[in-house]
Design a protein that fits this description.
Blueprint (H helix, E strand, L loop, with lengths): L1 E4 L7 H14 L3 E4 L12 H13 L3 E3 L8 E4 L6 E6 L6 H11 L6 E8 L9 H15 L2 E8 L8 E8 L8 E2 L8 E7 L5 H18 L6 E7 L6 E8 L4 E8 L2 H4 L2 H13 L7 H11 L6 E5 L4 H14 L2 E8 L2 E7 L1
Parallel strand pairs: 1-2, 5-6, 9-14, 10-11
Antiparallel strand pairs: 2-4, 3-4, 6-8, 7-8, 10-12, 12-13, 14-16, 15-16
Helix pairs in contact: 1-2, 1-3, 1-9, 2-3, 4-8, 5-7, 8-9
């Protein structure tokens, strides 16, 4: 049985989600203790219960300790089976974080799935839906997944009530990647805003234009700008700036939940994107930690460059090594560029 200390590294929900999903993918029993023990509210929160319960359903698992505030759980998985799941996270729990856990758990099953998930499509501390569609899904398709997305409704903090339907065909093995030299193509700005104001279109256009002008002042050519207005139960607006090719996947996203922050949206998002772009890396530092669980399941070596070794990336590297047995190396190429190698 795999045993994991839930207080290791950044000590949050990431350890829980990654550990349980990898155990399900491998068909290995797992126990996790000291769950979120260094947080103000230790133990399982509602969003963690949703993830684990649905992973347990996908893997036909027996479980122990699955209750609110529990600091210790065990999962005894069987085989992953094709399923159609309808999941209501409740309020504005992150749809994208839940999907990541589900995809990790099914990643070498070779099965087909349909997930209809209700919750927050674009919320703080998690990837936005546009970042998911423009950055995460393209690199997962390079690893062997087939994923189609139907955004029924956007949902923002605090009420949520967004809905997305995902149709997924998982691979039987993860394809390795070798992303060393970047190729920055199709630089796109995507802006969204809710329809609470009569000048919503003007406001989001202004932020997209600010981002475009800022990037062009630094010799970056913006290929396209897309904006959309959404009916929602909570006000929000967001930007996602992305560039993807077969050789590189970098992006940034920012959200604003009030008019004051909306006025800073273009500035915040474009500065974040520029810092990734000038690093001359192939994978942005947020995406870097998200792909480690998938690469750790590959039978072949992978390499990519990223701008920053975050605590989330380091935690996932150490955690995946302890669960899958993979090894990794980090080589500093320059002040803002690191080569990460994953070896089975």
């Amino acid at each position: 049985m795999i045993k994991i200390d839930g207080s290791h590294g950044e000590g949050g929900g990431q350890i829980l989600r990654t550990s349980v999903s990898l155990a399900a993918a491998l068909g290995e029993s797992i126990t996790i203790d000291k769950i979120r023990s260094n947080r103000p509210k230790p133990g399982l929160r509602p969003q963690h219960l949703h993830s684990i319960r649905n992973i347990a359903e996908l893997s036909n698992s027996d479980t122990e300790g699955l209750e609110l505030n529990s600091t210790s759980i065990s999962l005894y998985p069987n085989k992953i089976s094709s399923k159609t799941l309808e999941i209501d996270i409740g309020t504005a729990g992150s749809i994208t974080l839940l999907l990541q856990s589900l995809l990790q758990s099914i990643s070498i099953s070779g099965k087909t799935f349909m997930f209809t998930i209700t919750g927050g499509t674009d919320v703080n501390w998690s990837p936005s839906t546009d970042y998911l569609c423009k950055i995460i899904i393209p690199i997962l398709e390079k690893l062997g997944f087939s994923i189609t997305t139907n955004i029924i409704k956007r949902g923002f903090y605090p009420k949520g009530n967004g809905k997305i339907i995902f149709k997924v065909k998982s691979p039987t093995k993860i394809k390795p990647i070798s992303l060393i030299e970047p190729e920055y193509l199709n630089l796109t700005i995507d802006g969204i805003i809710t329809s609470e104001s009569s000048n919503s279109q003007t406001m989001i256009d202004e932020q997209c234009l600010y981002a475009k002008n800022f990037l062009e002042q630094h010799q970056l050519r913006v290929n396209s700008i897309n904006t959309s207005i959404h009916e929602s139960d909570s006000f929000s607006s967001g930007l996602c700036i992305s560039t993807t090719s077969q050789k590189s996947f970098i992006g940034s996203d920012s959200l604003a939940s009030n008019l004051k922050n909306l006025k800073l949206l273009g500035k915040t998002c474009s500065k974040k994107f520029l810092s990734e772009y000038v690093s001359n890396c192939t994978v942005d530092h947020h995406l870097a930690d998200m792909i480690i669980p998938f690469l750790s399941l590959s039978k072949n070596s992978s390499q990519f460059t990223t701008s920053y070794i975050s605590s989330h990336l380091q935690t996932n590297l150490d955690l995946c090594k302890s669960i899958t047995g993979m090894n990794y190396e980090i080589d500093k190429k320059s002040k803002f560029c690191y080569l990460v190698s994953i070896n089975p």
